[in-house]
Amino acid sequence: MHSLRGIAPRLSLTRSSVRLPLPLHRLPQSSIRIHSKHFSQSPSHRLPSMDPNVKQHYLADSPPSVVKLEIKAHWDTLKDESLRRYAHYMSRYVLFTAKATVARTPTLVSSCNTTLTVAGFFLFHRAAFEGTRVTLRQVSPESEPIYDLILSLHRAANGDWAGLAKKASVSEEDLRYFLEYAAQFLGNCGNYKGFGDSKFIPRLPASAFEALSSTTPETKDAFQKASTTGGGIYETAEQSLMHLGYPQSGHMTTYYPDSPSITKDEITAVGDLMEKKGLALENTRLRKTTSGDFELLIASGVSNPPSRDRDLGETDSFELEGSLKGKTLRLVFGDYKEEMAKVAHSIKQAELNAANDNQKRMLEAYARHFGAGSIESFKESQRVWVKDQKPALETNLGFVETYRDPHGVRGEWEGFVALVNLERTRAFGTLVDSAESMIPKLPWGTDFEKDKFLSPDFTSLEVLSFACSGLPAGINLPNYDDIRQNLGFKNVSLGNVLSAKAPNEPIPFIAEQDQEVYRRCRDPAFEVQVGIHELLGHGTGKLLQETAPGEYNFDISNPPISPVDNKPVKTWYKPGQTWSSVFGAIASSYEECRAECVAMALGCDFEILKIFGFGDGTVDMDGEAGDVLFAAYLQMARAGLVAVEFWDPKTQKWGQAHMQARYSILRTFLDAGDDFVKLHYTKDDLSDLEIRLDRSKILSHGRPAVEKYLQKLHVYKSTADVEAGKGMYDDITSVDSWWASQVREVVLKNKVPRKVFVQANTILEGDKVTLKEYEPTLEGIIQSFAERNV
Ligand SMILES: [Zn+2]
C-alpha cells in the first residue's frame, strides 16, 4: 500500500495513515470540557478570549494558495467518440447538479440513449457531489451553516463583492479577509484543515463579518445560524475544541454526536463487539444516550431496510460485555437519510439500463450500500471496481478514508471522476516493457529479484472533479485487505493535482542560477520519478522465504551471496512472516525509500529519459534530458530538506513516510563526497539557506552513492535482516539538533500555505458540452461552488 498522498496535498492513503503531529494538538487532560458547554452558544460578539499568540496559529491563511485544477487540455483530447459521450453525459450530470432536484433524475436517465456505462458514470458523479454536505457535516456541526452563509453572501454580492462590502461599510481589507477565509473553507470542505485537522478562523473581526452579513435577511439569518451552531465561526473557549479528536479529550468530532461523555474505551468496546459480529464501521457514527446505552447510526437511505439487505440480518440490538455489561447497543438506520436516498436513487436509475452484467452487479451493490447501509454490498461494489481494469474514466465514491474519525475506523464521504492521461499511460507502458533490460542495472543480482517481473497496477489520471476535504495526489484503493490480497487494488496518481501550482509560487532553497531550469523541468522530472518509483521501484525485489517448514524459495544448501558483504545470506523470512510483520513500524517508510532510490538510480538512465520523451537515449548532461535529470536530483534534495517539517521535535518521530525517506536520500547526497551537494548559507539564522547541487557530479557521485544505499536497503529487506535494516534506517533518518532546531525553523518560516483547488464545472448548451473553468482566485473558487449548487 504505497501512496503518493505524501508527496503533495495530503498524507498517506491507507488506513495506516499518520496524523500530523501538530504542536498544539495534544493538550493536557485538565482542559477536558464537555461539548455541550460550547454548543450552548455564545453570540459572536461575546467571543471567548484566547491568547493572541495562540490565536494566530488558527488564523486563516493570508492569502491561501488558490490554484487551478488544470483539466482543459485533457478534456480537449477526448477525441474518441465513446469517450466524448462518457464525458458528455458526465457533464450533463454536473449541469443537473447545477439545477439539482431529484425529481429530474428520471428524465435525465430516460433522455440518456447511450449505454448505461455512461449513465452510471454521470450518476456516480452526481452522487459524489451530493455528498458534499455529508462531508461538511462530518467535519463539525457548524460547517454546513458556514457553507450556506458563504453561498448566501455570494448571492447577495451578485458578482460585486466590493459593492457588497461598501454597502455594508466593511473595509476592503476585511472583505479580503472574508474571501480568504471562504476560499480556504471551501477548499477544505469545512472549517477544520483537511490536512492537520485544526480549526481555522477568519482574520476579520466578528463584528465586520456580521456587518458584511447584514445586507439581506437571508445573509443575516445565515450568519446567526453559523455563529450559534457547534463551535461557531471563531475561536472556542477551550483550545482543545480547535482540533478534531476524541470528545474525551475535549476535541471536536461529529462522529460521536451528542455524546460528550463517550470514552475511547467505550468506542473501542463497541468496535470490538461489532468486529466480532462481522459488521464494519466505515459508514457509521456512534452515539451514547443519556441512559448510557449506545446507538450505532448507519448511513442509509431508509430507516428500516429489509433484513435481507442488512449485514447482520434481523438482529439489531446487542448486549454489551465487560465494563459495559448491562448496557445495550442498538443499530439505528437512516443516518444522512436524505442524501443517501438521493444517491441510492440515482444509482438505481443507472442500474435499470446497465450495459453489462458486471456493471449491473456493481450498481446493484452500490445501491444496496447507500440504500440499506450494507457494508458487505459496498465491498462487493469494490470487488467489481477492482476488476474493471484501465477504464477510460475512473470513479469511486463512498465512505472511504478513515483519517478524520479520531478512532480511525469511520470513513469520510468522498467521490471523484477522473480522465486517463493517455500520453503518460503510454510512457508507463513502455517503461514496464523495458523492465527486463532495466532491472539488471540495479545493484543486486538475480538471486534477489523475482523470476518474472510483475508490473504493479499503476495509472496516471487527471481529475475532473473530486468532492472531498482535501485532494490527494494519489489513490490506492480499496482499503479492504481481503480484496487487496485476493483481487488486487488500483494504484493511481493524479497528475493535475501533483502539478498544480500558483503562478508565481516562490521556490525557497533553490539557488538563483537554478531557478529557471527548476521551474521548467520539475514537473517532467517528477513524472519520471513517479513512474519509476511506482513501477520499477515497488515492482522489484524478492523476499527470501522459508515458504513452509523445510521449503525455501531459494537454494538453502547454497545460499545467495549478499552483495553488501559478499557473504552467504544468513537470514530469511520464516513461515508466516511477512515484510511488514518483520520490519514493523518502519516498513512503510523504508519501502518508500527503496522505491525512491530506485527512481534516483534509474532516473539517471538516458534510455529511460528517452521513454518519457527527453533526449535521444545517449548520455548528455547538457541537453534536455540532462536538465530533467538535474531537476530530479534538485527536487529530491529540496524535498529532503523541507521534510524536517514532518519530524516532530516533541516525540522525536517522523510523521510522514515519504518525507522521512527523502530526508535520508538528501543525507546520502550530502555524504556522497567531493561537495556533490552542499547546504550553503552565510547567515547564522540560515535565512539565506540554499541547496548547491553539482550537476556535473550526478553520474559520478550522486548515482553511486544512491546505489550503495539502495543495495543495503534492498538486501536487508530481501533477507528479513531487520537488525541491520532498522539500525541503518534509524541512523540515517535521525535528526540532530542542528537539523531539528535551525534547519527546521527556516523550513517552517518558508512554508507555503496549503493549496486549495478551483475545480471546473461542465455545462450543457443544446447538445454541446462545455467545460467551465474558473479563475484561480478567491472569488473564483466561491463562484465555482455556487454554480455547482449542492
Ligand atoms: Zn511508493
Automatic annotation (TrEMBL):
Keyword match Chloroplast: no
GO biological process entries: proteolysis
Cofactor(s) the protein requires to work: Zn(2+)
Family the entry assigns: Belongs to the peptidase M49 family.
Active-site residue numbers: E534
Subcellular location: Cytoplasm
EC number: 3.4.14.4
Binding, Zn(2+): H533, H538, E592
Superkingdom: Eukaryota
Protein name: Dipeptidyl peptidase 3
Catalytic activity: Release of an N-terminal dipeptide from a peptide comprising four or more residues, with broad specificity. Also acts on dipeptidyl 2-naphthylamides
